[in-house]
Design a protein that fits this description.
Elements lengths: L2 H16 L6 E7 L26 E5 L14 E5 L5 E8 L2 E4 L10 H7 E5 L7 E6 L10 E8 L4 E8 L4 E6 L17 E7 L4 E7 L6 E10 L12 E3 L2 E3 L5 E3 L4
Parallel strand pairs: 1-2
Antiparallel strand pairs: 1-13, 3-4, 4-7, 5-6, 6-13, 7-12, 8-11, 8-13, 9-10, 9-12, 14-15, 15-16
Length: 258
């Protein structure tokens, strides 16, 4: 099973066990380059995408300033709202440029194609980082910590680079895959999604950078997924795993069939 499938399945199981759950915050980067307007790759309300599927995305418009260096969200930053009413703010700190994968194929396009279409890019040789800061996270909603899901943008093929959170730097090989979410670096074909787990605090900064000018890569979107802690009444809830009932204390009982 691919890690992306396992991650989504685990998140769904935890969400079911948690009962009333905090919502996720999703950010889709949109741009105005190559004939595209600010709404060309917006994800419409009700359209579902994401490693952890959600139907409410914040479309953050990164305007192309024309000088090749300055790219800011309209107004400098954008207010974000989560699927459960959670709030935060996103700020575009820096990028070499913005670009489009132009993977939108008319009637064949869906929310996931839109998610990967527009992105903020950078590379080492250009001396910049694609850098986004999220702050003002709702402390109550994210009190148990959260995972940060980063969606990469590249135009075609595969590219080498780095992704970081709060100053860290992880090497990645990114693939131009626009139909599914691939988080497994060991499957041989690169990733288009990266997950930072167990993040805490009311703010964080995500960075991305290609390792050469030709290997520019960028950030196409983000998801902030709160860690779900089951309420006391749900500690004894049952989960179906591999044809068995598993109790919260780890005891397993086979299901009766027939």
């Amino acid at each position: 099973m691919k890690r992306s499938t396992l991650f989504a399945a685990t998140a769904l199981s935890v969400a079911m066990a948690a009962g009333a759950m905090a919502g996720t915050i999703g950010v889709n980067i949109t741009i105005n380059r190559d004939g595209g307007g600010p709404n060309d790759s917006d994800i419409a309300s009700g359209d579902v995408s994401g490693l952890v599927p959600q139907d409410m995305w914040n479309n953050a418009y990164a305007e192309f300033a024309g000088d090749g260096n300055i790219h800011a969200f309209t107004g400098g930053s954008d207010a974000l709202v989560g699927t459960g009413g959670e709030t935060a703010t996103i700020t575009n700190n820096s990028a070499t440029g913005n670009w489009r994968t132009q993977n939108l194929n008319g009637s064949g396009s869906d929310a996931t194609h839109y998610l990967f279409d527009g992105y903020l890019e950078a590379s080492i040789e250009q001396g910049t980082l694609a850098s986004l800061t999220i702050d003002g996270l709702d402390e109550a909603a994210f009190a148990n910590g959260y995972d940060v899901v980063v969606y990469f943008g590249i135009e075609s093929g595969t590219r080498n680079g780095f992704v970081g959170l709060n100053g860290s730097s992880e090497s990645v090989v990114v693939t131009a895959e626009f139909d599914n979410f691939d988080t497994d670096p060991l499957d041989g074909d690169g990733v288009n999604t990266y997950v930072f787990s167990g993040v805490t605090g009311d703010s964080f900064t995500v960075t991305a950078q290609g390792d050469t000018t030709g290997d520019r890569l960028g950030i196409a979107g983000l998801q902030i997924v709160p860690v779900q802690i089951p309420e006391p009444a749900s500690v004894v809830l049952l989960a179906l795993v591999g044809g068995m009932v598993v109790l919260a204390d780890g005891r397993r009982f086979p299901l009766r069939r027939g």
